[in-house]
Amino acid sequence: MTEAKTPAFDRHMLEALVCPQTHRQLEYDAKRQELISKGAGLAFPIRDGIPIMLVDEARQLD
Hints:
single chain, 62 residues, globular
């Protein structure tokens, strides 16, 4: 039985994606699979290789 592998996030997408709240550039956190918006204090999850760019789905940064 083989384990399903999560699709990788395409880092080239970072060039096109911006924070929906601040409209600024995002940082990629590969370990947590999140896109970080320091200006908004939010971390947007990446699920199955797809960034979820909804403020309601984002995690507040500490």
